[in-house]
Amino acid sequence: MRTSFNGVTIELVNGDITEQSDIEAVVNAANAQLKSGGGVAGAIHQKAGPRLEKACRPMAPISPGEAVITEAFELPNRYVIHTLGPVYGRDKPESKLLNQAYQNSLKLAEENKIKSIAFPAISTGAFGYPMKEAAEISLKNIKKKAPQLNFIKTIRFVLYSSNDLKIYQNQAQKIFD
Description:
7 strands; 20% strand; single chain; alpha/beta; 5 helices
């Protein structure tokens, strides 16, 4: 699915966040220590190679809602923006922290004059955030921030499963139509 809002193209695709070669920055759903792990963080670190973890070390730990940026090393992108989403049921208030993770990622992208960015569904894997709520928060955030974006022209959500993609598509239709 592809839609435009305020001069920003929003794309929803099923795929692998580490395979977005036409995107300048990918977002890592990171852990606090910015190390390899499971899910998105594990995939990004594995594909980027050991220099990514070395580049992350001086920036760790980060708190829920925070974001930091590194180069992408062996990934087909220029940058990785690492953000820590909330653990659902533990980090409060979850919705505010998830919102901040997206806002701070977009802020870093703008500061670095990044034209295209790809997000995973932050906090929805091991951190347990319900997919429908996470989709609504992330897409409403994009709609709210789009008028303020000067450099970002493409925002892609890369959803790992076709079911997750359907949830995002349903939320996008409600929010952007």
